[in-house]
From TrEMBL:
Pfam families membership: CBM_1 (PF00734), Lipase_GDSL_2 (PF13472)
This protein's UniProt keywords: Hydrolase, Signal
Biased composition (Gly residues): 282-293
Matches recorded under PANTHER family: PUTATIVE (AFU_ORTHOLOGUE AFUA_2G17250)-RELATED, RHAMNOGALACTURONAN ACETYLESTERASE
Domain annotation CBM1: ranges: 293-328
Superkingdom to which the source organism belongs: Eukaryota
Region called Disordered, residue ranges: 259-295
Family: Belongs to the 'GDSL' lipolytic enzyme family.
SMART domains: fCBD (SM00236)
Name of the protein: CBM1 domain-containing protein
Signal peptide: 1-19
């Protein structure tokens, strides 16, 4: 697609360097940029990050700049926020999600380059390994957000995703990690142009509904990284929270496609309790090979309201609860 902005840049180039700079036109359609860690990134093997599925549920183009193993600090130091700052144009939207790699102690001798200083303000500390001046999670997040807003873009700060909340067989419904309230605070501190989505709570509510076996099946190797199908569900929880304006209005809300995902019970219980929608029948949107009308091992194969494949490519379709049947070995 040839965008308005590339036309404007081409026009500038054609009239030469001495021309009076003209304001670069905004894009016809805003672009959504994603900044985050492995839980959002395009990954490979048995895992996938949720950012890869966002364009299924919103009407805007999505550019996924999330990358495994990063924190707000290392994303800053590697120039990755700066790269997005160069790319964004007026009215673009940047979704930022960190927290999984931001804990730990920078002042230790084996500082991993990712941990932030304690606190949520202007506190600083020194890396025990390199002497680098290190800032707080909020400092890195708010700095990045302000740099995008200064270019006319809008910022959606997403709380980090939870780990497997059924790890160990019973549901963890306790307090979220500290980076969840920190992220909410970051959006509030930045103010105009920034908004917040409690993605942690949305996914937590979805996992509570899914139950033990169905949730555990979304985690093929560890308690942090989901399968492609799990990432799709985690993405749907984000989009549902956006559509419900769960924690205030974001600029994404008006771009959510119909039908809106319904993977967690809405606060107040006003929505019907449908099963999760749109599971991939090929084992994962971006790295699966199609296998026709069958559900993959561990995939959904039935349940109330289910309209996808009901035969298993591998294993047997077993009822987990009334709205979730699954292919199990
Ligand atoms: C987000 O909104 C929900 C629903 O109103 C609320 O329960 C939750 O505490 C909010 N999250 C944060 C971090 O404020």
């Amino acid at each position: 697609m040839l965008s308005l902005s590339s036309l404007a840049v081409a026009a500038l180039a054609a009239v030469g360097a001495n021309a009076t700079p003209v304001e670069v036109a905004r894009r016809a359609t805003p672009t959504v940029y994603l900044a985050g860690d492995s839980t959002m990134a395009r990954t490979s093997g048995q895992h996938m990050g949720w950012g890869e599925y966002l364009s299924r549920y919103i009407t805007l183009p999505v550019v996924n700049k999330a990358i495994s193993g990063r924190s707000a600090r290392s994303f800053t130091n590697e120039g990755r926020f700066a790269e997005i700052e160069r790319l964004v144009q007026r009215d673009d939207i940047v979704v930022i999600s960190f927290g999984h790699n931001d804990g730990g102690s920078p002042n230790s001798a084996n500082d991993n380059g990712r941990s932030a200083c304690g606190g949520t303000g202007n506190e600083v500390c020194r890396s025990g390994k390199t002497g680098e001046l290190v800032y707080t999670f909020n400092y890195y997040m708010e700095n990045a957000a302000r740099s995008f807003i200064a270019k006319g873009a809008r910022v959606v700060i997403s709380a980090q995703t939870p780990n497997n909340l059924w790890d160990g067989g019973s549901f963890y419904g306790g307090a979220p990690p500290r980076f969840v309230p920190y992220a909410a605070q970051a959006a509030k501190n930045v103010g105009n142009g920034a908004s917040f989505v409690d993605h942690y709570q949305a996914v937590s509510n979805m996992f509570r509904r899914l139950g033990n076996q169905a949730t555990n099946a979304l985690y093929p190797t560890d308690h942090k990284h989901t399968s492609p199908y799990g990432a799709d569900l985690v993405c749907q929880a984000f989009v549902q929270a956006v559509a419900l304006n769960l924690n205030g209005t974001t600029p994404l809300a008006q771009h959510v496609k119909q039908p809106v995902p319904n993977v967690f019970p809405a606060p107040g219980g006003s929505q019907p309790t449908n099963p999760p929608t749109n599971p991939p029948t090929n084992g994962g949107g971006n790295n699966g090979g199609g296998n026709g009308g069958t559900a993959p091992l561990w995939g959904q194969c039935g349940g109330n309201g289910w309209s996808g494949a009901t035969r298993c490519a591998q294993g047997t379709c077993k009822m987990q609860n009334e709205w979730y049947w699954q292919c199990v070995p």
